[in-house]
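Exercise 7.
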Amino acid sequence: MTIKKVDKNWLVDVYPNGRNGKRVRKKFNTRVEAQRFEKYVLNKSFDDKDWNPSKEVNRKLSKLIDIWFESHGRYLKGASQRVRTLRNLDRRLGSPIAKKISPSNYMLERSSRIESGVTPKTCNNELGYLNAVFNELERIQTIDYSNPLKGVRPIKISEKELSWLTSAQIEELLLTIDKTGNEHVSLITRVCLSTGARWGEAEGLTAKNIRNGQVDFTDTKSGKNRSIPISDTLFKQLEEHMKKHGRFFDCIKSFRKYLKTTNIKLPQGQSSHVLRHSFSSHFMMNSGNILTLQKILGHSTIIMTMRYAHLAPEHLQDAKKLNPMSIIKNSNMHSY
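Solution. The predicted structure, written as tokens, is:
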């Protein structure tokens, strides 16, 4: 019986989800109150998740990472690196039940990472990856709860100095590389400087990507293909190279080694990407259009491209013409 009299009270003793589920016991002064409560409990077992816990609610983060990877993550660029990062993060958090991850515990772990020398950008990337897991699984209804870390903000990072090479530095770099006789590094460097391509995009070119006086970049970071015209000289050099070698060798380490032998000094962590920055900076300084640059670089939004807008000649001239001192009529003050 689920209702029985115990001394002067009526006891409700019920397993609304069977013997393996949660047990509910409560005493009442009258049998009617006990019957009402029993009915309430049984009804709640069908509509309220708290009375009807499922195994899915108690799934560990590691399990959700596996589900996310199989259903979605494996199709993303850098999938293996991303899932490895997520699994390492799960281990550092103690392999918690996903729904019960504590924002405060996560932030303590993040602080510990920062103190150990891990960069804020790396921590922000990890948080972004974890948010993506919860958001995607909620979207496809694999979980029925919200991201427990949705209130955690990424660490605010100051914008890095945007480094680019002057014309003299570009000449020095190309001369240094050409002296090594490494045709692979020489041509990839020239492709990056001529098109704004990332090193990996240029290095991945094959004969089929070089045609009609342009290079076609496929399998890019943004997932969108781009076709950029190049000079006749560079086009012929690439055609000859592909006939001879078929494709480029992996040579980013050689580029970095040659770069170190020049007088060019770059901020830590920058090497081949300075070629992309240099193309973009010179493009804008030579009166290029910011929307055209966005298409050339393959940026999905104009926000990233706007980093180069301040280099446009008209932008610089506006600083001279539109500052408050330019409208002061007093000649003595105006001389400043």
